[in-house]
């Protein structure tokens, strides 16, 4: 049985990595931080999202994912629109964790009932 919480959380993180990478391109033009700083900050954040998606097999991956949500919201300091985008992804992240855990419990209950 596939782990629904991990699948949902990984989907959020990979999607977030793509959006953060595109935010780097926006930050290059709109931010006063400069091209190297913008690409470095958002590029590193994007790579961390992808790394975290791979770490979801262990509990530390979920903790890192939660910390990354704060970092993505903080990206609004360079690109103000990222405050809203980061908040949206934070809601998606915590919803994925909550619903994924609920699906796991329900699957376990169904499996328990089906056992002879």
UniProtKB/TrEMBL annotation:
<feature type="transmembrane region" description="Helical">
    <location>
        <begin position="36"/>
        <end position="58"/>
    </location>
</feature>
<feature type="transmembrane region" description="Helical">
    <location>
        <begin position="70"/>
        <end position="94"/>
    </location>
</feature>
<feature type="transmembrane region" description="Helical">
    <location>
        <begin position="7"/>
        <end position="30"/>
    </location>
</feature>
<keyword id="KW-0472">Membrane</keyword>
<dbReference type="Pfam" id="PF14017">
    <property type="entry name" value="DUF4233"/>
</dbReference>
<dbReference type="InterPro" id="IPR025327">
    <property type="entry name" value="DUF4233"/>
</dbReference>
<keyword id="KW-1133">Transmembrane helix</keyword>
<protein>
    <recommendedName>
        <fullName>DUF4233 domain-containing protein</fullName>
    </recommendedName>
</protein>
<keyword id="KW-0812">Transmembrane</keyword>
